[in-house]
Amino acid sequence: MLGKIFEQKLPLDEILMCSTPEFPQMYQYIDEKIIPWLEKHGHQLTVIGNARQTWNKWCYGTITRGKNKGRVRGFPPKLGMSWCTRELKVYEVDRYLRNIPHIRYLGIAVDEKKRIRDDPNIIYPLVEAQMTEADCLQWIKDNDLYNPLYDYFSRLGCWLCPKQTKSSVFSLIENFPDLWQKLKEEEARVMALNPVIDLWNLYGTAYYEDEYNKKVANE
User: Are 37 and 145 contacting, i.e. CB atoms less than 8 angstroms apart?
Assistant: First the structure.
């Protein structure tokens, strides 16, 4: 998206990135590829929020009202709007920009138009350029900004995201065993607290590990 903003010479004062539980390789990619590229174009990256702090507060914090008052929340739900998206991204940006008149640019591709909000303060440069997700992937390849994580996943997100597809989970198990082990430990910690949602990704890590082992055995 930033490439299109630069190409279209749209006004740009600040670039925000929300702190989220991304793959360590993602932060390495940002440090080694994105930040130097931004500096070449005369911009810096502002990181807002604290992923671990917010995750601990909401995953292990207690509900303050309603029928589940006093119980630990547990993992974000697999279906619907999750508290992690709201707390780690939406609210962080809203708080940061609360008293600043602004226009936001959001990187939603033209084949994701259902995600567009009818808001005069938001501009969608990729939609205006008629760029699909495939076009965006080709653009980063053409401009030497390819993220190696795309070798393992069709879409990138947090390594402990509960909304991952089965193929994404299998790739996590196979290619990032250290993170998979951390996820299993996180699940065990949650389950010990009698939370509202105890199993990660609805079925739990044990289920996916068993399914992965079956897949490997049949290959």
Answer: yes
CATH architecture of the domain with range 2-218 = 3-Layer(aba) Sandwich (3.40)
- β partners of residue 72: 62
Q: Which residue type does 204 have? A: G
Give the residue extent of every domain in the chain.
2-218
Question: pLDDT digit of tens for each residue in the chain (219 aa)?
Answer: 677 677 777 788 999 999 999 999 999 999 999 999 999 989 999 999 999 999 999 999 999 999 999 999 999 999 887 899 999 999 999 999 999 999 999 888 998 878 888 888 898 989 888 999 999 999 999 999 999 999 999 989 999 999 999 999 999 999 999 999 999 999 999 999 989 999 999 999 999 999 999 999 998
Q: pTM, whole model, 2 decimals?
A: 0.89
Q: Tell me the C-alpha distance between 181 and 183, whole Å.
A: 5
